[in-house]
């Protein structure tokens, strides 16, 4: 089954404790991206990657890091999480991003930072 | 002013009603317009995609783009309870890989 898999789905952590949210896709997509979703603000892009070893900042990159060492994986790293990073995070992938704009989303990772 | 505005709702309609969902935007460079549907506790999924101005129909769904007014719409005919979800508009320009999403409109279709 074609899918984007995120882990963990739910996480409660404390300020300053480094964490990684993993994202993996099995569709051989070149493009991958991370979004956060907050009430009233919609989906905002954090980072995106057009291919292996190529990453770029989105609209809200502060406090986040990413890496793209393999085509299928695109982990999101919070080196020192803060309460304002409490949010619902989505990973997405696409092979048609410059044409139809079809993004395939994972099921989301709800993060709470205390 | 936000780049993309969308009434958050919630919007409640009876089954069988025609639903109109709308977004306005400020960036005249946007050329690609999309509607995503997001069920509760799920990721968004692409519903409709339109390039530049005009209409596009797919079953019970019609997407309209009016670039002169910077206004896009999604119409749902014969709405069903299974259409109950949050609807997100999204757009981008010719060059960017950055999609700009609206905040979403929550729709409830009552049996």
Please name the defining characteristics of this protein.
heterodimer; A: about 110 residues; mainly beta; 7-stranded mixed sheet; 4-stranded antiparallel sheet; B: about 110 residues; 5-stranded antiparallel sheet; globular
Q: Can you describe what's shown?
A:
The complex is a heterodimer of chains A (114) and B (111). Chain A has 114 residues and is an all-beta fold. Helices cover 0% and strands 50% of the residues of chain A. Chain A has strands at 4-7, 10-13, 19-25, 31-38, 42-51, 54-57, 65-66, 76-78, 87-94, 104-105, 109-113. In chain A, the strands form 2 sheets. In chain A, strands 2, 4, 5, 6, 9, 10 and 11 form a 7-stranded mixed sheet that branches. In chain A, β5 (42-51) and β6 (54-57) form a beta hairpin. Chain B is mainly β. Helix content of chain B is 0%, strand content 55%. Chain B has strands at residues 4-6, 11-14, 19-25, 32-38, 45-51, 54-58, 61-66, 71-76, 85-92, 100-101, 105-110. In chain B, the strands form 2 sheets. In chain B, strands 2, 4, 5, 9, 10 and 11 form a 6-stranded mixed sheet that branches. Chain B starts with a strand and ends with a strand. Chains A and B meet through β4 and β5 of A and β4, β5 and β9 of B.
Query: What gross morphology of chain B would you assign?
Result: globular
Tell me how many strands of chain B there are.
11
Number of helices of chain A: 0
* Helical proportion of chain B, percent range: under 10%
Major sheet size, sense and barrel closure of chain B: 6 strands, mixed
Span between N and C termini of chain A?
A: 36 Å
Q: Roughly how many Å apart are the termini of chain B?
A: 37 Å
Low-confidence stretches of chain B: none
Summarize this structure briefly:
Chain A is mainly beta.
SSE layout and pairings?
The complex is a heterodimer of chains A (114) and B (111).
Chain A: E1 4-7, E2 10-13, E3 19-25, E4 31-38, E5 42-51, E6 54-57, E7 65-66, E8 76-78, E9 87-94, E10 104-105, E11 109-113
Parallel strand pairs in A: 2-11
Antiparallel strand pairs in A: 1-3, 3-8, 4-5, 4-9, 5-6, 7-8, 9-10, 9-11
Chain B: E1 4-6, E2 11-14, E3 19-25, E4 32-38, E5 45-51, E6 54-58, E7 61-66, E8 71-76, E9 85-92, E10 100-101, E11 105-110
Parallel strand pairs in B: 2-11
Antiparallel strand pairs in B: 1-3, 3-8, 4-5, 4-9, 6-7, 7-8, 9-10, 9-11
